[in-house]
Amino acid sequence: MGTTRKELIHPSFGTSLAIVIFLFGLLTIQVIQLGSPDIHLTLIFACAFATVVLMAQGMRWKRIEEGVIHGCKIATIPMLILMFIGMLIPSWIASGTIPALMYYGLKMISPSMFLFTAALICSIASIATGSSYTTGATFGVAFMGISMGLGIPAEMAAGAVISGAIIGDKLSPISDSTNLAAGVTETPLF
After folding, report:
1. Confidence of residue 9 (pLDDT cuts 50, 70, 90)
2. Which of 155, 173, 152 is nearest to 163 (CA)?
């Protein structure tokens, strides 16, 4: 019974919308002024703005802090997945995996089966890694090189790579976006 009425205040839809509009406004200004935003600084300003607005409406710091901790807890698994993806891409490039894929792809894939093969391999790779970004940055680069060697239009090759990567990413149980969606909604993934 020690909880006061002010501690149970939830932000209204209008307050939440104002915070999102503030963040969007900062991003827009940075893109127009700088060409590319420094997202870290933008997020710090948006967090400070949200804190000031919420405290002005009577929300206690303890409640705001609990919300921040809860949000970080939800996003931990997707952040770890993205970190591992960030390590995988340069290791494949440095170890020669991408050039090897191009070499063997040019020898083994016929031009008539290239688009199907690219989409199939990219979907399998993105199911295995859980990331369409990783697939695009590794297999996608290799397949774009192979398409040039086989005389396949780059637009069609890119379409096959992206289609396969997105399909696999959405089917993978270790996908960052799938885990984030389940975490935010607090729903078991399986």
Report:
1. low
2. 155
Q: How many residues does the chain have?
A: 190
Q: How far is the C-alpha of 78 from the C-alpha of 43, rounded, in Å?
A: 18
- The verdict on residue 130 lying in a domain is yes
How would you class 94 by CB atoms within 10 Å of its CB: exposed for 0-12, middle for 13-18, buried for 19 or more?
A: exposed
Task: Give the integer Cα–Cα distance in Å for 62 and 93.
Answer: 46
Residues 47 and 83 in one domain: no
Q: Calculate mean pLDDT across residues 41-64.
A: 90
Same domain (yes/no): 103, 170: yes
H helices present in 96-175, as ranges: 97-108, 114-129, 132-150, 154-171
Quote helix, strand, coil % in the chain, to nearest 5. Answer: 80, 0, 20
Residue 80: pLDDT above 60? yes
Q: By residue range, what is the domain housing residue 131?
A: 79-179
**Is 27 in the same domain as 83?**
no
Would 45 be classed as within a structural domain? yes
| Section 84-90 average pLDDT | 80
How many domains would you assign to the chain?
2
Q: What is the pLDDT of residue 37?
A: 63
